[in-house]
Design a protein that fits this description.
The chain is α/β, with parallel strands linked by helices. The protein has three domains: about 15-80, Orthogonal Bundle (Arc Repressor Mutant, subunit A); about 90-105 and about 355-465, Aspartate Aminotransferase, domain 1 (Alpha-Beta Complex); about 115-350, Type I PLP-dependent aspartate aminotransferase-like (Major domain) (Aspartate Aminotransferase, domain 2, 3-Layer(aba) Sandwich), CATH 3.40.640. The chain has helices spanning about 15-30, 45-50, 55-65, 90-95, 115-135, 145-160, 170-185, 200-205, 225-235, 255-265, 285-290, 300-305, 320-325, 330, 335-350, 350-375, 400-405, 445-465, and strands at about 70-75, 75-80, 100-105, 165-170, 190-195, 210-215, 215, 220, 235-240, 270-275, 295-300, 310-315, 380, 385-390, 410, 415, 430-435. The relative contact order is 0.14.
């Protein structure tokens, strides 16, 4: 029998085998192991490789096709579908059908009412002469006045921040690039939650960094799992989002934060902390405040201030800044001095804090609305969180629920889009953004549709079990 190029790893998975195979297909498509257009083994060949019946493979492929992952054609074979080009009801299809597409798959940056006028006033205040000055390339890590403003902004979260340890980066993705490049060499390992920031893995592919997952629960990264992963992988750093984790929205309690810091100190591991939404929960204590000597603190302005201000701030130990200064791609990393100037004026005028408070209030209103619509315990969202995590169980999976929601004109983000380690147990569900711009989406109606969809599945489950 010829060796197959792809065999799903279903070891350790529970439940029906055909569903386990379909889940692995979903994971491998999401990770890129099964690229668009890849041909899957024949039913007979895969059945022989796994030691199951051909009927089981037929059911697995049918389930994967139902989820929109693959296409099977008699005489040609089974191939991975290009889901970017065709969806049962994407934005274009919804528009042609005369209805809007409610995209709740992203956590859109809400903008304070009147923000456009405020930015226009700021640009007038800045003046054309200053704007002309800002057009040129910035110095390494940003202009001094912008780094000082970034330090003032981060001081709201980590205490007194040092402008000399502050860098301006190109949003969250630029911050991840800064951290991985400054801390690792190709082949080094960085740990992350089993579901993590969707930019982490693509950036790691560019830097040659190996990403290994750490098990998580409803409170975020599990300390015991982190300890074991440190022993097994000898990582250079751990990437973690303790406050409103992306995508689950989990909020790590203080005792667990202390435990994470203690483990990193014990194993000599650096911490890269994603605090993008930290100001939406002012009571939480960043890991970077507990261990400033070994933490890179990352925050992004777009999520808190305005979508047009796409810059981020980094606060890092002196040794990291010194190493980064010798890396040409970081020193020359393109950032917008004009965006940094706008951020500086918004920070110094108090407008940035007002925008964060307003977004926190709107997110809380929508959180309460969402929790009223879903069954207790299935929807998880902490006060002020910009997203809701909808837990799913059989027969739903994150991929199948997202496909069914899309067919109803609503976008949600499945767990597979954030998967770091395909072999680790991880929560299954979908992320529902609560901070979508209201003029573009009827949020209450979209949430009601999703709740109805979940209820329909519950009724189907009961009928199947009867």
């Amino acid at each position: 029998m010829p060796k197959l190029k792809w065999i799903p790893n279903i070891a350790g998975r529970t439940g029906p085998v055909y569903l386990a195979i379909a889940d692995v297909i979903a994971n491998d498509v999401a990770s890129g192991r099964l690229p668009v257009g890849a041909r899957l083994p024949t039913h007979r060949a895969l059945a022989g490789a796994l030691g199951v019946t051909i009927a089981t493979i037929t059911r697995a492929y049918a389930e994967a096709e139902r989820r929109g992952l693959i296409d099977g054609t008699a005489g040609r074979g089974t191939f991975v579908r290009d889901r970017r080009r065709e969806c049962s009801c994407g934005p274009d299809e919804a528009a042609r059908a005369g209805r809007g597409f409610a995209d709740l798959s992203r956590s859109f940056p809400l903008e304070l009412p009147g923000l456009g006028n405020h930015i226009e006033e700021l640009l007038t205040k800045i003046g054309t002469a200053r704007i002309s000055e800002l057009v040129g390339p910035p110095p390494p890590f940003g202009r001094p006045e912008h780094r000082e403003a970034g330090a003032r902004w981060m001081s709201h979260r980590i205490g007194a921040a040092d402008p000399a340890r502050t860098a301006i980066v190109g949003g969250a993705q630029g911050g991840i690039m800064f951290a991985l490049t400054a801390l690792t060499l190709p082949g080094d390992t960085v740990l992350a939650e089993s579901l993590s920031h969707p930019c982490l893995r693509p950036v790691a592919q560019v830097t040659g960094t190996r990403i290994a997952g750490v098990e998580m629960d409803g409170e975020g990264m599990i300390p015991e799992a982190l300890s074991e992963a440190c022993k097994r992988h000898s990582p250079k750093a751990v990437f973690v989002a303790p406050t409103f984790q992306n995508p689950t929205g989990s909020l790590m309690p203080f005792q667990r934060r202390e435990a994470i810091v203690a483990i990193c100190r014990q194993h000599g591991v650096m911490i890269v902390e994603d605090d993008t939404n930290g100001l939406l929960d002012e009571r939480s204590v960043p890991l970077s405040a507990l261990a400033p000597e070994r933490a890179i603190f990352l925050t992004a302005c777009a999520e808190t201030l305005a979508g047009s201000v796409r810059i981020g701030f980094i606060h890092a130990p002196p040794a990291v800044m010194q190493r980064a200064a010798g890396i040409t791609c970081l020193v020359a990393s393109p950032t917008s001095s004009l965006a940094a100037e706008l951020a500086m004026h918004m920070i110094d005028s108090g407008g940035a804090l007002r925008a964060a408070a307003w977004k926190r209030n709107v997110a809380e209103e929508r959180r309460r609305l969402a929790l009223d619509k879903f069954p207790a315990g299935e929807a998880v969202a902490h006060p002020g969180a910009p997203q809701l995590w909808l837990r799913l169980s059989r027969p739903w999976s994150g991929d199948s629920f997202a496909a069914a929601a899309r067919a109803r004109g609503i976008g949600v983000a499945p767990a597979s889009a954030f998967a770091i380690d395909l072999n680790l147990p991880k929560p299954d569900g979908v992320r529902i953004g609560l901070t979508v711009i209201e003029k573009d989406v009827d949020v209450p109606s979209a949430l009601s549709t999703l709740a109805t969809l979940l209820g329909e599945d519950g009724a189907r489950s009961e009928s199947l079990a009867a």
